[in-house]
Design brief:
This protein is an alpha/beta fold and 289 residues long. The protein folds into 2 domains: 161 residues, Rossmann fold, CATH 3.40.50.720; 118 residues, N-(1-d-carboxylethyl)-l-norvaline Dehydrogenase, domain 2, CATH 1.10.1040.10. It contains 14 helices and 9 strands. Strands 3-2-1-4-5-6 form a 6-stranded parallel β-sheet, sandwiched between helices. A 3-stranded mixed β-sheet has the order 7-8-9. Helix 9 packs across helix 11 and helix 9 packs across helix 12.
Length: 289
Amino acid sequence: MSENVALLGLGTMGSGMAANLREAGFSLNVYNRTAAKAQALVDAGAHFASTPAEAATGASVIISMLADDTASREVWLGRNGALEAASRGAVLVESSTVSPAWIAELSSLAEQRGINLLDAPVTGSRMQAEAGQLSFLVGGKDSVLETVMPVLKAMSKEIVHLGSVGSGAKMKLINNFLCGVQVASLAEGLAWIERSGLDRDKALTILKAGAPGSPLLGALSERMVSRNYTVNFLLKLMTKDLLYAQGEAAHYNVDLKTAEVARGLFESAIAEGYENEDMSSVIEPLRNK
């Protein structure tokens, strides 16, 4: 592939995404605050850039996968930011889970420079990122999406175009709101099972096979039982996503009361030191009561 792609952010998701872009043959510039995280990609032929601007220079597609609005703003607009270095006609792909308000601001600033933005957050976690099996939830122009399809396909199993810029961000927050509430309720339910004297394995078998069952319940109940909190999805990021979801829903006069309760459980886990563990560790404060 001759297309030059930049990827900003090599965390839990970005590292797998970048590896799949290299495997697909794209020329790849990567940026990450911690340079050591890029070493495997450099060994695979990627170029490590010392700043977002350096990564973006000459790239036709610039993807970011960052923690939140603050990190995204810093990489795009901060000192040596990627937006100022992006070429006219380049496409920005914001794949972070961020607020629709920030997406609208970034899109407007990009448009002033003759640059198109797609908001394209993903569903899936670390394993799907590594396997190239993410689902992209895209907001933006059809014509712009068409130009970056080969790049997105290298990282995904599915690309869903939801509408105008901001549509992807809205859908991702709804998705993560529902996931966060389910994870919190699973933690409460499993703590209840463990204290009640029920056979835990039999109880979980019933729940997984019944109406409450879901892929999320199945995967996270196993992690909670084994206390394996190797990160697939950071607990502190789910806490942030629930906060963003509450703020966005409030614009439409929807009060996410269940998100408030769930976020309280995640914040309790953060207070006990689990912020950098997998979100399944939200059960631990409930076990410790």
